[in-house]
């Protein structure tokens, strides 16, 4: 390992041709401690990498960069192709965007791979058989961070799911399972409630799964799936799921194996990859030399596999397993097998002292298949006939007793043109025509307009409809156009409709 | 208990004045078996209720009612005021709306209360100390079921969160904790990512919590919170959270105590309440007389508490605890303390045989405080100054290499009026001005338009902007207006902005 430099150009001309530049972010909270420990192990093991520090996180936020990094950082990252990142702290409060999410999405790191396994009996766990890999979709879902407050009472966040996003992550999961000798892939979603978004994910899983008859396959609803993962992790092998669900279940999977401090993750994209611990910056234990560097070290091992440095990866992994077996433990994994309770630094020393040794009880490191080559994801078919058939117009409205009939009457008084009022819902529940008096009514009303004859309409019809509300004091706050795709409606009905 | 009748009017004139009409839905899958078992126990215990069967669920869906029930059902429900409901099966596939969600939302059942505790050592569990109550928001969040497909590649679901919804559920959680002698309330959300929606929930928790200094309070991020609940449930007491998170963690909490078949839930609204098991219709074990009726029985006990029939509730609960202690177990809770493995029917017989007995090891039933009287939730303040400052217009666009600069140029060519292009994002990531080439680009573009001078605009300006795209072949698919509220922006920035 050559020495760190702040000059990104230096990274392109390492002294030794096989030394690979790796961007390194030391992070916040426990970040600097566990990164220092990890880099010391990598150096001692002879990793052929050249760390190029980048500055991201809390201090950069505090300087006024609401994205958590400075614009010149992109060039450094691109020069490296790989980032080893310690956790960072996103300041609470408005204005700051999560740097992690921005990095993943900007660099197209669509697959978040999180292996979680137990190291029983050496690390205390109630689930000694757990050995599961979570493949989490990393770019979509509610993490688009598109939020709007448009009425006094209601705020909204958009959940976005794409066909290609689903295809890429599902494909990755099956290819990963095959390459790593895994037997089963479980998909988790809430497709019984979110029939279009999670339904799309489920459909893609079924369709792509048909091409992998050698692998066992199942789909579970996320609630029972998370519960079963928490109680019977040994039933699972590879799990593929959407972003938010994956965020939750990978903490569950890591924690039941003994500590969130044990698991690393790879964030994989077509041209870039980022490696980090799955946990956060744990400010409550920062600066105390007690954090477990194991998660970041696992991430570094995955990185070395990704870079093709398999011997170094295996050497570190085996030394780490041996350290756990020898009972050299940080406080988070202390238990009856702990022989020596150590801090972050001393744990790294113990791993370094064991480089070259292999575990005697735990299975030794498996050679990573390295980077996966995915079959190309076909572009989404564009020869679908798309027809505009109406629009949902949303209003802020809070007049009188908020009687839906009164709103319907007002809308009908004003709306002219091809589109006529078909339904009103409040928080998704149909309140007109024919609602129930018990339904709580916020100031946020979705009013569905369709052509009287059910036929196609034009964008001009929508603009005409909106302009008919001008001068009426009606505050329309958003629209959602209604389309059919090859005659299939691309919109849900109201609840109770 | 008088005999069931289909005539809702009969329910209003029971033979005995203290007999209360209760709507009863037998449900699908294992529903009829566990409902029959539960009603037999209620009858034997002398519950002063008058079951009025309603017909909901799969068979009604199949008749073509996409909501899962017939319109006349509302009258029956209203006549009863309380519903005891077995799980139902929502048919897979488009068009069908979840009956459970519709019932909860239409009847304003905002609080979903799910106590989960361990019955160790009689029921096998790795977490003998678990005794936690989940208070789940029941009407909002992604369960609004408002989904749209507006481009060939992208589908969307709206997550809606309201100030009053948060206030009601948080208030309920604190009042519940006090009334039930609980010590701590933990809120779970993802406010570090969803700063407006989950951020609102978090703010309300902090504000209302200040009025309950007698209760310990904490907030955790949902991922680590779920993980810690799965591994250390004894750290939690009362948990309050949003709808989707609550759905997931209550299955976790129930499952770690031994079986999802053990937990019941109350769905509480201002004028109506519904009681059900937390699990679903488990079609895989339906009709086999193996399902555990315990969850529905727990729901019925909560219902009796709600109706003020405390002695009957306690009598049933104690007999049930005694049955568990005696080792009379359905297969899902079988373990080393099982003396007699029984089916659904025989389990009910065993509980009936023990009516009047109390447990000898497990703590006997606590008297329920019954219905909570909440302080009135103040209406959301409406004297906030709301100012329209722009709009996000979303386009389907897939031309050439999908170069954001090309889209920006096209938009600028057409857009006339007060609003000018400020930013373009794709799945939330800023791609113009100054995006990064690695960012994956779907056919779904959010284009932010603001007044050049940052000043207020009018609805007419928005309509003018939209009309400037007519005749351009630009397919605008939705809008999200941008408002400030007392000068605070009601919208998030782009990722990387
Ligand atoms: N990728 C990232 O950069 C990332 C990911 C998640 C969160 N975060 C950020 O991190 C901050 C804190 O978030 P959080 O408290 O929810 O989650 P967290 O940082 O993962 O910490 C949760 C708890 O896990 C334990 N823990 C985590 N890492 C550990 C380690 N290496 N060794 C030993 N124990 C460890 C600590 O528990 P005990 O106190 O019980 O010891 C800690 O309080 C927030 O600002 C959040 O936005 C960043
Ligand atoms: N409130 C409701 O009406 C409600 C709620 C949730 C789901 N659902 C619907 O129920 C259907 C099935 O959903 P799902 O399979 O995801 O969840 P589920 O019905 O809760 O069943 C999941 C598993 O839990 C076990 N289980 C559930 N209840 C049990 C009981 N009383 N006794 C013993 N074991 C029990 C069974 O496991 P084993 O196979 O391992 O024995 C079952 O396969 C779907 O149509 C769903 O929409 C309805």
From TrEMBL, chains A, B:
EC number(s) on file: 1.1.1.42
UniProt xrefs under InterPro entries: IsoCit/isopropylmalate_DH_CS, Isocitrate_DH_bac-typ, Isocitrate_DH_TT1725_C, Isocitrate_DH_TT1725_C_sf, IsoPropMal-DH-like_dom
Cofactor section: Mg(2+); Mn(2+)
UniProt keywords, alphabetically: Glyoxylate bypass, Magnesium, Manganese, Metal-binding, NADP, Oxidoreductase, Tricarboxylic acid cycle
PROSITE patterns: IDH_IMDH
Domain Isopropylmalate dehydrogenase-like residue range list: 21-351
Region (Disordered): 361-381
Molecular-function GO term, any one: isocitrate dehydrogenase (NADP+) activity
Classification via Pfam families: Iso_dh (PF00180), Isocitrate_DH_C_bact (PF18324)
SMART domains per the UniProt record, alphabetical: Iso_dh
Reactions catalysed, as given in the entry: D-threo-isocitrate + NADP(+) = 2-oxoglutarate + CO2 + NADPH
Family: Belongs to the isocitrate and isopropylmalate dehydrogenases family.
Primary role: Catalyzes the oxidative decarboxylation of isocitrate to 2-oxoglutarate and carbon dioxide with the concomitant reduction of NADP(+).
Assembly and interaction partners: Homodimer.
Name of this protein: Isocitrate dehydrogenase [NADP]
Source organism of this protein record: Deinococcus navajonensis
